[in-house]
Amino acid sequence: MSAPRIRDLASPNHDARPAGAPIDTLVLHYTGMRTAAEAIARLRDPVARVSAHYVVEEDGAVWRLVPEERRAWHAGVSFWRGREGLNDRSIGIEVVNPGHEWGYRPFPALQMAAVCDLCLAILARHPIPPCNVVAHSDIAPDRKRDPGELFDWEGLAANGVGLWPRGVEGGDPAVPADGMVRAAALLARIGYRVAAARPEVALAAFQRHWRQERVDGVADAGTLARLAAVAALCEAEQDAPAAAGPRVGGRRVVARRPPRAAEH
C-alpha cells in the first residue's frame, strides 16, 4: 500500500459524531456533477449542507474536506445491516464522475488506484469489515445510483477493499418462479433494507455493485447465485478470520489487480 498524497480543502459542513459511535462503514459515492470544481464547491458550500470526508479527482488527486473524527454529511437517509443514519458511523469518499445525469463514464485507472490506496489507509485506521464497504446506492437504493455499474468494485476487492464473490459467474439468465422471494431474503441477509412492495429496487442496487453486467432488478438465476455468494461472505466474515497473509486494517492484502482502465 502506498500512502496517498492528500491535500486539505476544508468544508464547514460537518459536526460531532454521537458519543461512542464507532466508525465501521465506508461509503463510496460519485460526485454526479459536470466538473470536479463544481462538486468541490458544492461540498464546501454552507448553504448546501452536504459534504464528504474526501474527494478523489479523475487524475488521482485526493482532497480532504472533513477530518475523519468528525461527521460529514454524505449519506443522508440511509440503512445498512440494521443501522440507520449512517453519517454517524461512516467515512464518505466522493469520486469525481459526472454520473448518470451528466454523461456517466468509466473511472480512469489513476483515479481507481488513488481510491484504492485511500481506502486501504482508512481501513488501516478503523475496524471496518469488508461487507461494510458499500456504495451510496447500497444504503439508499430508493434514491441513489452511485457510484454505479462502471465502478471497479472487483478490482478494489482484489486489493483488500470490500469483498467480491470469487468463481461465481452469475451468467444463468433463467428466472425462477420464486426468484424475487429468494432474492429479498438474501438481500436482507447481506444488509439491505428491502421494501416489501418494491424489492426490485434493492436488487438493482445489489446488481450495480456485484452483478454489473445486468442491472435490471430481475431475480434471474445468475443474480441469485451472486446474492447467495455475497450473503455467505458477509456472514462468514463475522465467524472466521481471513486466510493467512499480509494484512491491512484487519484484512488480507492480495496481489494488486490493476483497476479497470477508462474506455475511450
Automatic annotation (TrEMBL):
<dbReference type="GO" id="GO:0008745">
    <property type="term" value="F:N-acetylmuramoyl-L-alanine amidase activity"/>
</dbReference>
<feature type="region of interest" description="Disordered">
    <location>
        <begin position="241"/>
        <end position="264"/>
    </location>
</feature>
<comment type="similarity">
    <text>Belongs to the N-acetylmuramoyl-L-alanine amidase 2 family.</text>
</comment>
<dbReference type="InterPro" id="IPR051206">
    <property type="entry name" value="NAMLAA_amidase_2"/>
</dbReference>
<dbReference type="GO" id="GO:0009254">
    <property type="term" value="P:peptidoglycan turnover"/>
</dbReference>
<dbReference type="Pfam" id="PF01510">
    <property type="entry name" value="Amidase_2"/>
</dbReference>
<dbReference type="InterPro" id="IPR002502">
    <property type="entry name" value="Amidase_domain"/>
</dbReference>
<dbReference type="GO" id="GO:0071555">
    <property type="term" value="P:cell wall organization"/>
</dbReference>
<dbReference type="GO" id="GO:0019867">
    <property type="term" value="C:outer membrane"/>
</dbReference>
<dbReference type="InterPro" id="IPR036365">
    <property type="entry name" value="PGBD-like_sf"/>
</dbReference>
<keyword id="KW-0378">Hydrolase</keyword>
<dbReference type="InterPro" id="IPR036366">
    <property type="entry name" value="PGBDSf"/>
</dbReference>
<feature type="compositionally biased region" description="Basic residues">
    <location>
        <begin position="249"/>
        <end position="264"/>
    </location>
</feature>
<protein>
    <recommendedName>
        <fullName>N-acetylmuramoyl-L-alanine amidase</fullName>
        <ecNumber>3.5.1.28</ecNumber>
    </recommendedName>
</protein>
<dbReference type="InterPro" id="IPR036505">
    <property type="entry name" value="Amidase/PGRP_sf"/>
</dbReference>
<dbReference type="GO" id="GO:0009253">
    <property type="term" value="P:peptidoglycan catabolic process"/>
</dbReference>
<feature type="domain" description="N-acetylmuramoyl-L-alanine amidase">
    <location>
        <begin position="11"/>
        <end position="148"/>
    </location>
</feature>
<keyword id="KW-0961">Cell wall biogenesis/degradation</keyword>
